[in-house]
UniProtKB/TrEMBL annotation:
Alphabetical UniProt keywords: Metal-binding, NAD, Oxidoreductase, Zinc
Known cofactor(s): Zn(2+)
Gene that produces this protein: xdhA
The name this protein goes by in its record: D-xylulose reductase
SMART domains the record matches: PKS_ER (SM00829)
Length: 352
């Protein structure tokens, strides 16, 4: 298309266009300009495309989509020491204020002044060039491709969720939802040394993939009560008195309810999937079991580094998750595919 910084822009629900935006300049000594090569599409991208909003984040002005990206460094600021032009990098797409209490304690994902790519009013990474601070660009090892680099972002989400669960060697871990994030949580739990990893879903194809990918067992949810589903899960997967850790990557109310009943006394529950704003919660089971219940939001200190290290060592593999690549001019096809649950992870090539 010949544009200097061709970008994929959302104007309103289901209305997108290609637009030549200004090429970002180095304005701070630690700035890095990245030539974006591959971008993955996730549920939040599709939700903005279909609804124009996620909760209180509303698209009021045209916004560039995308936040799961990898690319090649094209320019660096004077103070940049860890990267040079030509380096291949995974791009962490959220820039915190660095000054608030949450930032200083390492939980910068909870910064109230976070500037996150493709979250209104901030533009995303589906463009030819994107600017990031040096310490939010992670150099890819030679053994890791740029396509795999685009999956560092969802892998970092899986790392953070699994860290929230404090998964330890020998643990039994159940993951509800065998989509990209659920699969990556399973892979990370395996890397942490979990001895039993159960994938729970209603989609047979996804369950079969999960078993080949990282799960040791699979369980098909049935249309029965949460207590009965939990009892069947524990029995079929030989979980004894219940699972040590359960992660929900589905956001589905019946899954969440089943999970609480399937945990052992003193177990840990992590909510990774986004669902309805309010649900019915088994509070008696949570209290009587003295469960640890945690939320999980994006990623924070050390999650990206660990994600890259997992790829470098081969402890986690993401190549199998890439089920398709489309050219930049066909970006909307990728959104349609994800909306229709086609494949696992679709990548969009950067503009020529």
């Amino acid at each position: 298309m010949g544009a200097e910084n061709l970008s994929f822009v959302l104007e309103k629900p289901y209305a997108v266009k290609f637009e030549d935006r200004p090429v970002p300049n180095v304005t701070e000594p630690h700035d890095v300009i990245v030539n974006v090569k591959y971008t993955g599409i996730c549920g939040s991208d599709v939700h903005y495309w279909t609804h124009g909003a996620i909760g209180s984040f509303i698209v009021k002005d045209p916004m560039v989509l995308g936040h799961e990206s990898a690319g090649v460094v094209s320019k660096v600021g004077d103070a940049v020491t860890t990267l040079k032009v030509g380096d291949r990098v995974a791009m962490e797409p959220g820039i915190p204020c660095r000054r608030c209490v949450r930032c200083k304690e390492g939980n910068y994902n909870l910064c109230v002044d976070m500037r996150f790519a493709a979250t209104p009013p901030y533009d995303g990474t589906l463009a030819k060039y994107y600017k990031l601070p040096e310490d939010f660009c992670f150099k890819l090892p030679e053994s890791v491709s740029l396509e795999e680099g685009a999956l560092v972002e969802p892998l970092a989400v899986g790392v953070h969720i699994t860290r929230q669960g404090d998964v330890k060697p020998g643990n039994s871990v159940v993951v509800f939802g065998a989509g990209p994030v659920g699969l990556l949580c399973m892979a990370v739990a395996k890397a942490y040394g979990a001895s039993k990893i159960v994938a729970v879903d209603i989609n047979e194809d996804r369950l079969q993939f999960a078993r080949k990918y990282a799960a040791t067992h699979e369980f098909r949810s049935a249309r029965v009560s949460a207590e009965e589903n939990a009892a069947n899960l524990i029995k079929e997967c030989d979980l004894g008195v219940g699972a040590d850790v359960i992660i929900d990557a589905s956001g589905a109310e019946p899954c969440i309810q089943t999970a609480i009943h399937a945990l052992r006394v003193g177990g840990t529950y992590v909510q990774g999937g986004m669902g309805k704003n309010e649900i019915t919660w088994p509070i008696a089971a949570m209290c009587s079991k003295e469960l640890t219940v945690k939320g999980s939001f994006r990623y924070s200190q050390g999650d990206y580094e660990l994600a890259v290290k997992f790829l470098e060592t081969g402890q986690v593999k993401v190549k199998e998750l890439i089920t398709g690549t489309v050219k930049f001019e066909e970006a909307e096809k990728a959104f349609e595919g994800v909306k229709n649950a086609q494949g696992i992870k679709t990548l969009i090539q950067g503009p020529e």
